[in-house]
TrEMBL record:
Its EC number is 4.1.2.25. It catalyses: 7,8-dihydroneopterin = 6-hydroxymethyl-7,8-dihydropterin + glycolaldehyde. It comes from the Bacteria. Keywords: Folate biosynthesis, Lyase. Pathway: Cofactor biosynthesis; tetrahydrofolate biosynthesis; 2-amino-4-hydroxy-6-hydroxymethyl-7,8-dihydropteridine diphosphate from 7,8-dihydroneopterin triphosphate: step 3/4. This is 7,8-dihydroneopterin aldolase. The gene is folB. NCBIfam families: folB (TIGR00525), folB_dom (TIGR00526). One of its GO terms (cellular component) is cytoplasm. GO terms for molecular function: dihydroneopterin aldolase activity. Belongs to the DHNA family. InterPro entries: Dihydroneopterin_aldolase, FolB_dom, GTP-CH-I_C/QueF.
C-alpha cells in the first residue's frame, strides 16, 4: 500500500478541560497519513478515485467547528473514524498536536491509527 500525508494542518477549535478553554478557540495542528493504492489512481488520473486533499481539509475544519471536545484523545479518535468513513482509504494515522497546552512543553500530541 502507498501513503499520502498531509502535514501541519492548522485549525482553531474549542477544546480543553479548563473553563477558559471552553470559550476561547485554540490552535490544533494535525498530521494525517492515508493508505491508498496510488498505482491504480495513477492509471485513471481521476480525482474522483483519489483522496482530494482540499476536501479532506475542508472536512476536518467543519468537523472541528461542529463539536466541542475536552480531550485531544477524543478529538483524534472521532476524527480518524470520521475520515475513514468519508474518504477512500483503509487506514489512517492521525497525529493531533496541541501546542502551548503546557507552559513547560513546546507541544502535547497524540497519534492514533485506525483502519477498517
Amino acid at each position: 500500500m502507498d501513503t499520502i500525508t498531509l502535514s501541519d494542518i492548522a485549525l482553531k477549535t474549542i477544546i480543553g478541560i479548563h473553563d477558559w478553554e471552553k470559550t476561547i478557540p485554540q490552535t490544533l495542528r494535525l498530521d494525517i497519513t492515508f493508505q491508498t493504492d496510488a498505482a491504480s489512481i495513477a492509471v485513471s488520473d481521476n480525482i474522483a478515485e483519489a483522496i482530494d486533499y482540499e476536501k479532506v481539509v475542508q472536512h476536518i475544519i467543519a468537523f472541528a467547528h461542529s463539536q466541542q471536545f475536552q480531550l485531544i484523545e477524543s478529538f483524534a479518535d472521532r476524527l480518524a473514524n470520521d475520515l475513514l468513513n468519508h474518504f477512500p482509504t483503509t487506514s489512517i494515522a492521525l497525529t493531533v498536536h496541541k501546542p502551548g497546552a503546557l507552559k513547560e512543553a513546546k507541544d502535547v500530541a497524540i497519534r492514533v491509527v485506525r483502519s477498517r
